[in-house]
Amino acid sequence: MDSHYPYVEEKTGRRYGLWDITRPGGAAKGNPRYEIFGITKYWRYSKENMERKIADGRVIQPNPGSIPREIRYLDESKGAPLSTIWTDINPINSQALEDSGYPTQKPEALLERILSISSDEGQLVLDCFSGSGTTAVVAEKMDRRWIACDLSRFGVSITRKRLLSVAGLKPFMVQNLGKYERQVWQVAEFGDQAEARTQAYRHFILDLYRAKPMQGYAWLHGVRNGRMVHVGTVDSPVTTGDVKQIAMEFRRAAGTGKQAPKNSSVDVLGWDFAFELNEVSREEAARANIDMRFVRIPREVLEKRAVE
What we know:
- Helices cover 31% and strands 17% of the residues.
- With 308 residues, the protein is an alpha/beta fold.
- The chain folds into three domains: 7-76, no CATH class; 87-174, Rossmann fold (3-Layer(aba) Sandwich), CATH 3.40.50.150; 179-307, 3-Layer(aba) Sandwich (Trna Endonuclease, Chain: A, domain 1), CATH 3.40.1350.
- The strands form four sheets. Strands 9-10-11-12-13 form a five-stranded mixed β-sheet, sandwiched between helices.
- Helix 7 links the parallel strand 11 and strand 12.
- Helix 2 packs across helix 3 (134-141).
- It is rod-shaped and about 100 Å long.
- The relative contact order is 0.06.
- The model has no long low-confidence stretch (mean pLDDT 88).
């Protein structure tokens, strides 16, 4: 639109473009030749029609000595049916404000067009290969509900960062669906009974970590070389709230009982960690005067041969 109708009338606010009205010459072409505004050319219109358009202000000379052109308004254009090949949307270049550095990022204008013709406000948009998150970002801006999925943690991180820059952003959740694979593994390995299964799972992870199990605590599950150990669940990532609970229980346990911590240190084992965890949790641990270390449980734990 901007390329064909780049001008706006100050008085009316109507968008318009200037179009070529010259035509090829020669007797075989049959186009009239005459002079207007001091310019002699072969023209699209007869002299009579041209004079009428000049009188109506529809043909003008943009600059002294330039070739006359016809004014056409966008609001008068019927347009053309949209084809299946869209060449009017430019790819993202490295200087674009929306560029995230993701190699396959699509322009927001492209997704705006797709969502505008395929969905209404409030409807749900699903992108199973979200990449840099353009679909989710545009859906959020266009007041659609959305679900975005990707195997790449980098892609998920970029998507989250872009979403947080959207004005009026509504709450959303970053969920790791890898937990379902771990849930199946947990049931297969440690049985159907929830409490017994949880205890067996924790003992299994503590054994692999060369830590000794502890009893009587909700958030502190073992000890290794004088450091307390927390084992994260298979269902969800370790969150800031978990860290706060670990720190609170550590403070209550310090100096009490036979299994009380001997030094201010905790290893937090987890399959996944919330995106915002690092800085916030370190601040929380520092306030509690705890040396807290985060250790990722490797996926190979799910494979018997790797464990052996």
